């Protein structure tokens, strides 16, 4: 057994199942073996699930710090509300990008009008020191650039791919894209990036591996092309970026650098001291037990 994979090898990681609000999700990041891909530090494939006008994601107001949430739906619609006053319906093929900075809170709700299938991915990007203590922000992009290939296409969510750049805010050297393919898709890669390819739908071959929903293929830096082959119509989320140089500390909905920062964020949320603002939502605030390193608090 080799201790380290050679650069040509592909590492296949299985997602674990988790529950977010009313939905079961497949979590590809973080995992014990791989906590980040570039600055991407969280990846949940949500659904497919049936939702109604009055019930869907149903995630009540909860806080974030030090990260950006990237929401991309492949089916259906959901309603985003946040403490900046944003109320934004997101539909399949659209991007919601929320930057937490020093603190924001949001809820994810049913739309009041959409009934049908809901499916998508929620991703987090760890913010760097230059922006993680700055103000919160929200962007919605209804129309993102697409690159057409002979046997598929790529929609660029963040960063750039094959010379096409997303208009969404991007503070890191990274890329996020949705690949749709039926056949061979030769995607040009940035050699300084590491990559993760998360299969949402279909069946693809990569480096001798067969990948279906619930798997992520990890690729080390040093490649200039991704050779994906799909035998049937498939959807893949491609994440890439320069490997993070600093150690990040994640707990619950917070990305930080130390326990002290997490403790402060936790106390602000528990005491509702204004740091995370207020979300105009009918759903109950999400509470959680204190961090494990603190003695039991009542
Ligand atoms: Mn959230």
The CATH superfamily turns out to be Jelly Rolls
Q: Kindly report the CATH topology.
A: Jelly Rolls
Number of helices: 1
Major sheet: 7 strands, antiparallel
Query: Which architecture per CATH?
Result: Sandwich
Q: Kindly report the spatial arrangement of strands forming the biggest sheet.
A: 1-22-19-24-17-14-13
Describe this entry's structure for a reader.
The chain has 298 residues and is mainly β. It has one domain (11-241): Jelly Rolls, CATH 2.60.120.10. Helix content is 4%, strand content 50%. The chain contains one helix and 26 strands. The protein has one helix at residues 259-271; strands at 10-14, 16-20, 23-29, 40-51, 59-64, 67-75, 77-82, 87-91, 95-99, 104-109, 116-126, 137-141, 146-149, 152-158, 160-161, 164-165, 174-181, 184-188, 194-201, 204-206, 209-211, 215-219, 225-230, 234-241, 249-251, 254-256. The strands form six sheets. It has a seven-stranded antiparallel sheet, with no helix packed on it. The longest helix is centred in the last third of the chain and has 13 residues, at 259-271. The radius of gyration is 19 Å and the shape is globular. The termini are far apart. Residues 1-6 have low confidence and may be disordered. Bound molecules: manganese (II) ion (MN). Manganese (II) ion (MN) binds next to strand 5.
């Amino acid at each position: 057994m080799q201790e380290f994979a050679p650069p040509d090898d592909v590492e296949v990681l299985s997602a674990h199942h988790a529950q977010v609000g009313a939905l079961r999700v497949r979590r590809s990041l973080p995992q014990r073996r791989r906590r980040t891909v570039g600055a991407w530090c969280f990846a949940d494939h949500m659904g497919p699930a049936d939702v109604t006008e009055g019930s869907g994601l149903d995630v009540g107001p909860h806080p974030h710090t030090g990260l950006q949430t990237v929401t991309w739906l492949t089916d259906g619609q959901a309603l985003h509300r946040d403490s900046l006053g944003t109320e934004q319906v997101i539909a399949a093929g659209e991007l919601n990008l929320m930057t937490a900075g020093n603190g924001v809170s949001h809820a994810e709700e049913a739309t009041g009008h959409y009934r049908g299938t809901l499916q998508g991915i929620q991703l987090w990007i760890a913010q760097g020191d230059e922006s993680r203590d700055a103000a919160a922000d929200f962007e919605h992009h209804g129309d993102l650039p697409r690159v057409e290939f002979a046997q598929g296409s790529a929609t660029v969510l963040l960063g750039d791919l094959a010379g096409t750049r997303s208009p969404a805010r991007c503070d890191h050297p990274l890329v996020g894209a949705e690949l749709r393919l039926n056949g061979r898709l030769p995607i040009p890669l940035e050699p300084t990036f590491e990559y993760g390819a998360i299969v949402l739908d279909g069946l693809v071959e990569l480096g001798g591996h067969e990948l279906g929903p619930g798997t992520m293929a990890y690729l080390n830096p040093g490649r200039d092309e991704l050779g994906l082959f799909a035998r049937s119509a498939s959807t893949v989320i491609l994440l890439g970026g320069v490997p993070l140089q600093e150690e990040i500390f994640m707990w619950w909905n917070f990305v930080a650098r130390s326990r002290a920062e997490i403790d402060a964020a936790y106390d602000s949320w528990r005491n509702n001291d204004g740091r995370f603002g207020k979300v105009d939502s009918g759903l109950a605030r999400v509470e959680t037990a204190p961090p494990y390193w603190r003695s039991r608090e009542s």
